[in-house]
Queue: 2 jobs
Job 1
Amino acid sequence: MKVEILPLRLPYVREGDDVAGLILRALQEQELDLEDGDVVVVTEKIVARAEGREVELDNVEPSAEARRLAEVTGKDPRVVQLILNEAREVLAAGENFIIVETRHGFVCANAGIDQSNVEEGRAKLLPLDPDRSAREIRRALEEATGRRLGVVIADSFGRSFRLGSVGVAIGCSGIVALLDRRGERDLLGRELKVTRVAVADCIASAANLVMGEGSEGIPVAIVRGTKVLGEGRARDLIRPKESDVFRR
Amino acid sequence: MKVEILPLRLPYVREGDDVAGLILRALQEQELDLEDGDVVVVTEKIVARAEGREVELDNVEPSAEARRLAEVTGKDPRVVQLILNEAREVLAAGENFIIVETRHGFVCANAGIDQSNVEEGRAKLLPLDPDRSAREIRRALEEATGRRLGVVIADSFGRSFRLGSVGVAIGCSGIVALLDRRGERDLLGRELKVTRVAVADCIASAANLVMGEGSEGIPVAIVRGTKVLGEGRARDLIRPKESDVFRR
């Protein structure tokens, strides 16, 4: 049973655009049909932009705390203010980065705030509720196609201990985000070492192989053949703070 | 340009087995041909087993330190001794886990030591030099097929901040492990936010979608269509301790 990852090119997405509608049109133009079980991976960038999560930096008034962190990090104090607005907790800060826990519970650099693929003088926040965004896109795609689908809203996060970014799921609908294999047996009948698999993150990283933030402009990928449809939310992937030895 | 991930079934691998030879035979039996640019992902489990990295626990004499950590964690003191033997540094320990930096520089639970898919009374260490293992398998596969290939030795690691394991590359040959995109531009001509992509880890996570540690017994996957051939080692993915805010 093979897995396929099909790239889907979209026009530049603007505030108010209907992402599901754009995906359906692009599928038609690129002569692709969705199949039962397909997982549609969408970069958070276009979801956030469509949802109007871009901010004009001139409208942001940095607080004293934002100015202090801007000095530590060398970042624009207005961007720092946006990061603080989106953060529940600041975990670490250094040269050009602030690692926070976002309002959603994700631990990432700069609260996922992005100035690439955004016009000068503006910044883009993460979607407000990416699990909900995923659900809405899934429903619209399922309704139009009659297929049973999954949707993942993906971002790229850096990591502790390892260099480079990988794909992560910040929103999910229609798939098992965290696969629980406890109780399953290995080839010799012994219990498995790895008992929970972050399936949604593996799918986001797989999609990362065809998607790109650069001038290639491929914000969507269809992941076919995974058999992961089910119930799950990206929030299932958040490790509770009290069980995280690197946060105590 | 789509990406495909093809599972490859292998017989149970034993010490002294020739992994590349087994892969070639399995390709033939399953009527698959390798193509230029294919990345062959191999689980570290079969590489380590073939390389004789299994240890008889009865031959391990736990030190006082191992006995102390065994009490803290509830682990077998002999397994703890093996973990300490494989570790440069212990970062954290708790109920049934010890997070260490391995001799290779990887930060992971229990030094990657595994008792699943290993006979009772034995434990399996990570390959001694997985980059070298990848190189040897690649050379044998390239020689037999005449194709230009990449090889990734993959494991599953847990993570800070997020639940569930994902695929990681602990050995690489013939591919760019860490893709540097600094200087590239986005759709609007601005610099990219994400500048280094852990391509080899994305490939390992993608392969994870078809591979399994369970009774399915699929220890190899062919990842086709990625255009990532080049020079790189899994060691390129290790974040230097002094640049890691969660280790200072």
Note: The radius of gyration of chain B is 19 Å.
Job 2
Amino acid sequence: MSDQAKASSSSKLFLRALAGETLATPPIWLMRQAGRYLLEYRETRKQAGGFLDLCYTPKLAVEVTLQPIRRYGFDAAIMFSDILVIPDGLGQKVWFEEGVGPLLEPVTDLEALKKLDRSRVLGHLAPVMETLKGLKASLPSETALIGFAGAPWTVATYMVGGKGSPDQGAAKAWAYRDPDGFQVLIDLLVDVTGDYLEAQVAAGAEVLQLFDTWAGSLPARQFRRFCLEPVKRLRARLKKSCPDIPVIAFPKGAGAGYETYFRETGVDAVSFDTSVDPVWAADRLQPLGAVQGNLDPLLLVAGGSEMDRAIDHLLETLGSGPFIFNLGHGIVPQTPPEHVGQLVDRVRGKK
Amino acid sequence: MSDQAKASSSSKLFLRALAGETLATPPIWLMRQAGRYLLEYRETRKQAGGFLDLCYTPKLAVEVTLQPIRRYGFDAAIMFSDILVIPDGLGQKVWFEEGVGPLLEPVTDLEALKKLDRSRVLGHLAPVMETLKGLKASLPSETALIGFAGAPWTVATYMVGGKGSPDQGAAKAWAYRDPDGFQVLIDLLVDVTGDYLEAQVAAGAEVLQLFDTWAGSLPARQFRRFCLEPVKRLRARLKKSCPDIPVIAFPKGAGAGYETYFRETGVDAVSFDTSVDPVWAADRLQPLGAVQGNLDPLLLVAGGSEMDRAIDHLLETLGSGPFIFNLGHGIVPQTPPEHVGQLVDRVRGKK
């Protein structure tokens, strides 16, 4: 039986859409669906010390992953973790400050890079695999399990910058002054991310998503070299080692570049951000595979008729091809949980 | 003589490119070319109290506008001002804090909107017209004079949010909950921006640029209503009142939407950001008119062979149509002034 035939016979809508099937009701999940907008998340969060402790305590990570599944019956659960566990696993100092976000001891040259250790990553990230095993055992049979990692370019921006930044200036400075040195960091990330994603599949992940939040910041040539090519290499490796596992990529902000990226990386689906016109996505992206997106998270905060209209427009525009309903970016903390319920009902034709 | 024939016979390269002419050497100017990367700017800046005082003191504003022309001989000078002079002119409280950026007393509902007064704007902004007249009298004959304003959507994000924000959340909240109320603000901005730009032309501006920094944050439907349509209306008004004056728009982050925007607004040129592939711009945008862009400002900071390669790629890719060399966003304070000199020389074939 071919992969597509296997997926099409699956009871999991999410896997069927990823295999290219057009469904009467598209599957739905939301980026950052386990998060601060949920009271029960905030309660569980208190039981962990730091944010990384929550990621590394399988019992708690399983619990917060399941919370939105219990509430809304999403078609997919995404393991609770963070894209910065990779630098943490490599031995770079990473910590989260309340109200500030992630901070890292910056890695800005080859000397600092030498201190990172690929061999310790999988041992350090063993708790993530425990989380996946726990989820595998507890998820409803119709719910798909998503593993994920940050894409190399985006993880590199944090590793080099030591924090989030509006212009990714530090990583660009290295990439522009010394592209071959910066390539060493990217290559390390391709390798270690491959190790990590393969381990996730071994632990039960059925789908993998690569988050490339800062894909939109690079000019064309560097976009190709440091953003598209690494994902293409990762995709090729996973195609060999885990041929049945679909890969979704989210090159946020790639604009017209989404099309080239989708075509050339060989991923099974792209997640597209709020700025992309769904009509354009139906025309240029959906012929290449499944697409996932792109309700504005702030329309979900606002609710009401503007949200309903946007939901309906997405369903009409993308419903005649393989489509996964999602947001254009992560759900935000101020989202009223009842709006999420209304969204799910509307997508499933219940109101 | 037609507009195009008039512009083509002009000695100003910048006007010839805007009229659709392909030039052996494209004109060049840089967004924010009068700014903190220049020692002489920092010196002049000290003579003004607040940042708005600098904008409203014609002698100083003329001086800082001329500084980069003296140093580099750019093909165009852009009057020194800020997009927030419009809310300031309307009577909204606006101030700039060192290291923080602009702050405004937020306008978040129709009640607050009623307190704004379109009739005081041109009086309040009379110093800007003095600046333009001063520039007209002092610019070299080959240098074009650019006036500008913020586009309605982008100015609205600041007026509603009270400051810059990564997600334009406050303006979106209003636009999504009460689109017809928010439209009143947009309509006011279309009117007052039209008044302001016409006054700039009367004072000597030869080209107008509309800055729409946050064009990339809206979903398709709201992008059309609050971003594209207002610019289209402004363009139509100016076409009647100032038929000889070309308009450039910069809908930053519009992605594949640049094409629709260019086609439908009727502007003469679009400025495109760093994330846009120049090959795509040559293919999809340049057939519609002149294009302006898009060297990464951080490549200009880095300099060296990566910068040179990017410059050459832009010249090769866009040189066979109407093209204005510029950055993908404003020049940043840490730019070494000698890199700007190298850029200008390279574009002009001098090294």
Note: Chain B touches chain A at residues 166-167, 169, 172-173, 176-177, 179, 216-221, 223, 253-258, 260, 274-280, 284, 294-296, 298-299, 301-302, 304, 306-307, 309-310, 313, 328, 332 (CB under 8 Å).
